[in-house]
Amino acid sequence: MLSLNLLKVRLFWRALRAKSERLKAYYLAQKAILATNVMEAPLLAIDLEMTGLDAQFDQILSIGIVPIENGRLILSKAEHKLVKIEGSVGQSAAIHGILDHHLDGAVSPEVAMAWFADKCHGQILVAHHSPLDLAFLQKGLSVHFHQTVKLMAIDTLGLEKRRLMRQHEVLKEGALRLGASRERYGLPVYAAHNALIDAIACGELLLAQISAIGQGDKVSVAEVLS
Amino acid sequence: MDVQTLTYLIVGVTFALYIGIAIWSRAGSTKEFYVAGGGVHPVMNGMATAADWMSAASFISLAGIVSFTGYDGSVYLMGWTGGYVLLALCMAPYLRKFGKFTVPDFIGDRYYSQAARTVAVICAIFICFTYIAGQMRGVGVVFSRFLEVDVETGVYIGMAVVFFYAVLGGMKGITYTQVAQYCVLIFAFMVPAIFISVMMTGHVLPQIGFGAELIDAAGNGTGVYLLDKLDGLSAELGFSQYTEGSKSMIDVFFITGALMFGTAGLPHVIVRFFTVPRVKDARISAGWALVFIAIMYTTIPALAAFSRVNMIETINGPESTGVAYETAPEWIKNWEKTGLITWDDKNDDGKIYYAKGPTNEMKIDRDIMVLATPEIANLPAWVIALVAAGGLAAALSTSAGLLLVISTSVSHDLLKKNLMPDISDKKELMFARIAAALGIVMAGYFGINPPGFVAAVVAIAFGLAASSLFPAIIMGIFSKTMNKEGAISGMVIGLLFTASYIVFFKFMNPEINNADHWFMGISPEGIGMLGMLVNFGVAFSVSKFTTAVPDDVVAMVESIRFPKGSGEAHDH
Amino acid sequence: MDTSELQPITDFIQGLVPFDSLSHSTLARCCKSLSVGYYSKASTFVPLDETDPQLYIVRSGAFEVRSDDGELLDRLGEGDYFGFPSLLSGEKVSNRVRILEDGLVYHLDPDTFDYLRVESRQFDRFFNRAFAKRLRHQARFKAKELTTTSRVSALMSNNPLIIDVNASVCEAARKMRERRVSSVLVIDNHKLCGILTDRDLRNRVLAEGQDGSLPVHQAMTTQPKVLSSNALVFEAMLLMSEHGIHHLPIVDDERAVGVLTSTDILRGQSSQPLLLIGEIERQSNLDSLISVSKQIPLLLQNLISADARAEEIGRVLTSVTDALTRRLIILNQALLGEAPMAFCWLAFGSQGRQDQAACSDQDNGLLLAHEPDEAASGYFEALTKAVCSGLDQCGYIYCPGDIMAQNPKWRMSLSQWQSKFARWVDTPEPKALMHASIFFDMRSVFGPSSLFDSLQDKVLANTKGNDIFLAGMANNSLVESPPLGFFKKFVLERDGSEVKGIDLKHKGNALINDIARVYALSAGIKEVNTAKRIRALMEQDIINRKDALNLVDAHEFIAHMRLSNQGYQYTHALPISNYLQPKHLSSLVRHQLRDAFKVVHDAQSGIKLKFTRSF
After folding, report:
1. CATH superfamily of this structure's domain A38-216
2. Domain encompassing residue C295
3. What is the chain A residue with the closest CA to C78?
4. Which residues of C touch A214 (CB under 8 A)?
5. Ranges of each domain in chain A
6. Which of C419, C465, C615 lies nearest to residue B432, judging by beta carbons?
7. Cβ distance B463 to B262 under 8 Å?
8. Res. C148: pLDDT tops 50
9. What ipTM was reported for this prediction?
């Protein structure tokens, strides 16, 4: 866990180096949220579907987002965007279930990134296994802002891992997957999967995790940010 | 105004009357009425019973049957009247003392068996279905003539009207509605009869005109008596003599018996005896009902004879050689539209001619007789319209009662008591309504494809009742040793025997439905009586070889037969 | 966004009653408007925000709803709801939701909730019903001990004695003597600023050697403890014992409206039913019984203000009547000597059914073990005359229909009663049926139970399965119907041009009593109390469970409406009647009342079908 001040400095530094006002404002807004209680902070649970796991070569297929305000997932503001890709979804369709023809109404990656940059402004991202998702988003946003962009997120997988380790549990294969983690909190099993549902599932998991960590006490954003 | 408009008007007015009475009797200060010590007067209740009793069969079809078959038709008159007396005097008081409202409930309790009750329920439903089919046919005939559609469409319209009346409307079963219906139907029946009687014999009462001399147009006596004239006409045209029957003695005996005992087993009339609180009043109203029924029943033979003479004379003309189709009276053309009269000009002389045998060119449905009579006699249009309203009143009052028996038997006796004991009130009511609707649909089917004329269909219902329910009731009252095994097997075998005989001759082999093939010369209409004897026989033999009746049931039967504080003992 | 992307949520919501009644597009709109929250056991209670009411839909976990005084009202699990009462009533949340197991909860905002209520009648009805159920449930728990829940307003003395702050203590003492009270409220510029009691006069004036010209404000107790008139008596007792005081000014909207003294509370407690009954049993003559019976109206008022269930109120009042009757019989027997034979004092009608209300009249009779000779007749005539007149003087007026034990017609031997009942059953004339509705609700108040049982057993054996009699009874009970017209609008009764309102007794409770009686007689059930009858019928599977529960609820609800309406009439100085003006009701209560009447209507159709074989 990174200390609050260290995080603040880092964000301040990033803001200084930001070329566009928009990006600068983004970093500063994040900095302002760090000390707040997670249950009160503006969060944005996200999930991506990709053609593969390598941000260098693979592409984003879809993005699901759901904002969390005052500890509640706001479904009316939840969104799901399909993104056009070059070439075919190929073998990856077996994992995410998105076929080429599903992408007929999809938006271009440029439009998708502009949309996402807009949506994540002033919000702290939440994702399950966030490094992977962030890598793809950073790549896309860097193109959008013409500058390297660094993102931060609350990683529900990371939180879960730390919690289990602290309890000295032996981690079984797959124990940290989204579904398995949710099960430990008694959260319902969602049969269907897409980027949006997984984003919702991830958001709900975070709420459960924060309740478990805090035991009713306040937990600040900085404490759970990876 | 033409007949059609008048029909709409008069039928409309009578319906408004029924609905009005229903609303009045509901909204009115019924409570004060009760407190005043009122209750329903026995005369009123007698009228209501008579309305329940006199169905479309009595109103529409009976005079037709008598008119066409003469003496043979009188079996219906005798059987039904006798049955009513039997019911009112020998059965209703005992059943009443037993405290049971319906025949299946009596049988179920008397034979201490749910199975017996269920068998009785099924018999009752079966009988009601058949009976109601006759009503639908009657209503169909009325509508077809006055709305100038064919009989089938008439039945469909009738189904809709009866459904509205019996299932949706809240006006059935109210004594005063029934009283109004009796008034309408008896008025509608008597007016044309009196008119014709005056025209043909100069006597106001048709019952007297029946045995009187005919008069000519100037009002002078001709010296020819009505029945002689009719016998002469019949002989001339090759029919058997009007005053002599064509049916064998044994058949007449059996049909009369079936009708009589069947009447006594009919489920929907018995209930009327129980809606009067005091036994004494029940007897008085039964007596009044008999008077009110007799008014109509004694008129029937007269009306039948008048209209027969009139009909033959208008068709065959004064010379008895037939009249030209172009100059034929209006009523023939009107009824041709309904398909109930057909003319087949066999000798191509352009004349219509009615007789027995190969020279006959007219096919006339008997069920039109009462309805057509006013037209044949050239009576004013409003009389014709009135008869339509009367026919509807007769059909409605009877079918409403029957549908209630069917629907409540299905919903309460079959579903609630047997199949779905935990059913909610709302569902029970819904099933009752569905059962009533189904009853109407099935009755409508048989109304369109009738196995006989209205009165004959009804006669079958009576036969079924005679062979199944009547013996069980009688033995329940008068035998202390009859047990459930005997009663159930009697009912089942009696019903099966009768039903299969009827189905065999009426539906499967209608071409051999004549005296030569009948068992002992008994027609399907009369087989119910034999079925009844079979029922008795089976029941007694079975009961001999099965377990004895429990003591409490024996005590119960004894207490029914020997009255002990049976009601009006002394007033407080 | 395509809602199919919210599939798991839509699927779940769609599976819930009443959401299953929503159209596809409405459901989609509903699901999209949800927000999702997570509640952890660690925080004990779900934080219910008063300014932001929501419908809470439990997705997982377990919760329980408790009233503000901690009574358990409901346990909730997956697919259950909470928070709807304040959505429907617009009132602030008073219940608390305890988290038993961590859970996920969907929130539906009030706008969407209202939209769905407009969209779907079923949706609307479901929550109205649930709310009604919750309310009644709550009422059931509330009516516990009287002292803890009855309101101060029922006991306090109105029109308190007041005096200006600058008046002299002498003047105050004079006024107190005139009004024969032990305290006076001191007013400064229309506001309460203190209280002066007997004790103050003693301790601060006399004992200090002050003279009578001392201004009141120097002797009074300043800033006295006060309560509002709708505070609980329990709170008042607590306050008094904590501060060792005997007088509490009652203040509403800063205005002094009354004073509550510890004597008032003591007096109030004695109108608790048990105490009252005990008191009745201690009295040794008619005069003292009459004076004790003066407390009965107060008891009723207390019970009403304590929100007791109508069924319980009826039982409590009836048990007091029973005790009075018994005491009167015993006192008179002491005068007349031992009875010449065993007898039972029979209670009929509302006393029999145990649902007496205010100003009931007498319905009673006498059951004798055998035919009395002349001497015995004389004895029982004297006894019954004395008891009936005693009851009359205690506030139970003579029966206008003369159904009373003092009428020789209703003073009969066992065999006479048996044949009387048998005659009613065999000849169900309208008059017999009217009698039946009173006499068949009979209960023995005094006398050997074996004697009464031999009457009741015989009667029930006669009625059980006697379809003709039952059809007559059913028809008789169908003469009146609930006041619902076409399209379920209330039908108001009119007296000339004046609208009298809805007759809650004759078109509501009486109909349910009739229905329960027909069923009970058909099945030979001994209970006579309507609610008990229905429950017994339900246990014997004679009435469908759902129908039975609905009927009991409707009975309680209508009876409750009647009592609270009479309470309203009482406090607004209107003549007490059974007529309710629906315009005084909120739309929700109107809705519930309509539903209750609908239940009565359905039950009537039920007995019409079952017993009279028509519909």
Report:
1. Ribonuclease H-like superfamily/Ribonuclease H (3.30.420.10)
2. 271-463
3. A188
4. 42
5. 1-35, 38-216
6. C615
7. yes
8. no
9. 0.88
